[in-house]
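Researcher: I'm preparing a figure for a lab meeting and need a structural model of a single chain. I don't have an experimental structure, so a prediction will have to do for now. The sequence is pasted below. Please return the structure as tokens so I can convert it later.
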Amino acid sequence: MAIWRTVVGKLWLTIILLVGVVISTVGLFLLKIVDVTVSADSLAEIKHLFIYSGAVGFLLTTFFAFFLLTKITQPLREMKQAANRVAQGEYSTRLVVRSWDEIGELAGSFNQMASELNTLIRDIQHERDQLDGVLRSMSDAVLLFDANGRVKLTNPEGQHLLEVWRGLKWEDEGEADERVTVPDPLRDIYDTLIAKGTTHTGKIHVQSGVWSVVMTPVASGEYGAGAGAVAVLRDVTEEFRVDKMRKDFVANVSHEIRTPVAMVQGYSEALLDDIAQTPEERRELVQVIHDESLRMGRLVKDLLDLARLEAGYLDMTMQEVDVNALLQRVHRKFSALAKERGIELVRSGDDAGLVLRRADPDRLEQVLTNLMDNALRHTASGAAIALSACTRVGDKGARQIEIAVKDEGEGIPAEDLPYIFERFYKADKARKRDSKVGTGLGLAIVRNLVEAHGGTIRVTSAIGEGTEFKLVLPAGD
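Model: Understood. Here is the structure written out token by token.
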């Protein structure tokens, strides 16, 4: 039907043009005939009439020709402009359908194409936004490399990791190609993956951090010639540290228990075999067995306390605590032992404001007992140990109470200070068994108990000058 309308329209244009030509030809022919039969005045009028008629016919023909030409070319120009706007990203562009011929059908097809293209682009943008949201929400670092090692895509964690690693100094930094941006820790994995084309997993160590790496090949021309790679890195430093602590814990517990068990077994067998000949020798063997059993008992008790603290199952009786009375009990408990060893034990004067509104007095006494026991074991005769407390104002204006235990003992090496609150950690690396060696759990228990009260503990020490532990507890006013 549309084709038929187009044919009719073109036929009308042809007819109009033919009519104009016929009128002009007939007019000229009649002029010749009239020229011989009419007078000169009539001839002039007839000539003017036919000239006017020819001019009007020509003008009408020209007008209709331009009208029809404009009707065809104007939609085509609009379609070209619309196509340019779509090419520039204006996918909502539409044409106005003014006819039902081929031009109108073409405009309708263009509108349908633009609509489908707009829907497709919107779906692609939606998927891209979803992918971007997934990448941004990932706590793992994601890095996408092309075949030349250039970074094509990262998420925020990956970008942060790249910035940190690029700020480090590497041994082969001067030899690296500036165009290759694969971080130095990943370069071997990346080269192996590009060569073999298979997924690679492993762990890398950068300074004190540990990362788990899964690198997979990406075969797509979109990211460069040949294949690239996508790497997912997870910071497993804490997991690695916990696993190492677990292994160290098992090793230390085995060591701590194995030796006293072996000694108890050996000395008890000696008693059974009547190796000890005199009552003094038998008493000495029994004393060793007793001491080692006490050591195992303390170890088991400390392990249970620490396990309950870390699991949050340790019962605590919170009440108002007079810190002066607490210091007095601890001072009285260790006075005789300090005097016996020739150590001066000093306690600060009473302060009426030293009151904790919510604290467990037994647990705080356990904390101070562990600290005093450490101080006595590492302080030589003739030196002093100071036990003091004072009030202070915290960062947010809250009142706090600071308790300090300061000795003039051997001191702790600087490299050991960050680790002294770890389980079984001992500044004395030799596993000696004498009166100066504890289980290595006391300070770990101290830290957990202080934190259970909402407080903090810090230590300062210098070799040969002594050590000072400071407990900061909220007064609870």
